[in-house]
Write a structure and sequence with these properties.
About 40% of the residues are buried. The chain starts with 8 loop residues before the first helix and ends in a 15-residue tail after the last helix. It is mainly alpha-helical.
């Protein structure tokens, strides 16, 4: 598309909608062959059910306090899926009568994501170290409170967010899987590894959507990318809180993740650098003046954030979460 042409977000979404079937086949797995939560945890009809639970509980005793806290926080985030689906459905262009493919994508993505909260929730229930009613209250809070990730109904900004967030979630789950394996918790390691794999596919899908938007509407997509990075990408867990507490628990959760190296400020920077490379931002052409300035800001941001990250110090004191049994 040349500089003289213009296109609306709705038109871009309709163009992408024409290829949703291809994207669905490429980035989502068949339900008939996909893993299911019931395959990863003890079978309640098995004669060895109670012995299998004892094995999980024995292995879970070796999970560090911080690792268990991060696992619970990750699970609360996954369980708030209804909020994320309703947000994606509200994007401009999704409700267009001719954009039926977007609803198919959102339903398919939601169906895959739904398994994550299911399997992690069941693991927490079986491991014996979690106060489930307090954990469940935090899930209810997160859904009831809602969240504002500052995308509005803009699909361009929303896809920047999902590209970033799915990549970050992949990192977190993958590292929890590694730490769980090191502690001897084989079941948890396998669960988190499979969840991480899903998140990696989903991240690739949303990055592909942005890549295609850059081909059709590069200046507006660039400005949307810059806007999201100026605001900073916040995780859904930003609004997580514990029972009876009006102050959110994200800072304490984030400190635990930072201490473990599960997800750090450096990871945030590296995710952004990955997006700059994947979308070939440095060499993007056909940009208007506003978009050129946006590109300059984006290219300089990693170095600025690195200087800030180098000065950060992570608290060494573990917060006592109400979710974890004494």
């Amino acid at each position: 598309m040349n500089k003289a042409q213009s296109i609306t977000r709705g038109e871009v979404m309709l163009q992408l909608d024409k290829n949703i079937e291809t994207y669905t086949q490429e980035f989502l797995k068949s339900i008939e062959t996909n893993w299911q939560p019931g395959e990863l945890l003890p079978d309640s009809s098995s004669e060895s059910f109670f012995e299998d639970i004892k094995v999980i509980q024995g292995q879970s005793e070796n999970l560090s306090y911080d690792l268990l806290a991060v696992l619970i926080g990750d699970t609360i985030t996954e369980e708030a899926l209804p909020t994320y689906e309703s947000w994606l459905v509200s994007m401009d262009g999704v409700q267009e009568r001719k954009a039926d493919g977007w609803m198919k994508w959102i339903r398919g993505w939601t169906a895959e994501e739904n398994r994550h909260g299911d399997v992690l929730n069941r693991f927490l229930y079986l491991c014996g170290r979690v106060d489930m009613p307090k954990f469940e209250a935090s899930v209810q809070y997160l859904i009831a409170d809602g969240f504002d990730i500052q995308t509005g109904n803009d699909p361009y900004k929303s896809f920047v967010y999902t590209s970033f967030q799915e990549t970050a979630t992949n990192i977190s789950h993958r590292r929890v899987a590694t730490l769980a394996k090191q502690s001897g918790n084989i079941a948890l390691s396998r669960i988190c590894g499979l969840v991480a794999s899903d998140e990696a596919r989903h991240a690739k899908a949303y990055k592909t959507f942005v890549e295609k938007i850059f081909e059709m509407d590069p200046s507006e997509m660039m400005v949307a990318f810059e806007d999201m990075m100026r605001k900073k990408i916040i995780m859904p867990a930003m609004y997580m809180r514990e029972l009876g507490d009006k102050v959110n628990s994200f800072a304490n959760f984030s400190d635990a993740a930072q201490r473990l190296g599960v997800y750090t400020s450096i990871d945030y920077i590296e995710v952004m650098q990955g997006l700059l490379q994947d979308w070939k931002i440095e060499n993007m052409r056909h940009l208007n003046d506003e978009a050129e300035k946006a590109r300059d800001y984006l290219m300089s941001l990693p170095d600025r954030l690195t200087r800030i990250a180098d000065r950060l110090r992570t608290p060494t004191i573990e917060h006592k979460f109400s979710w974890i049994k004494a």
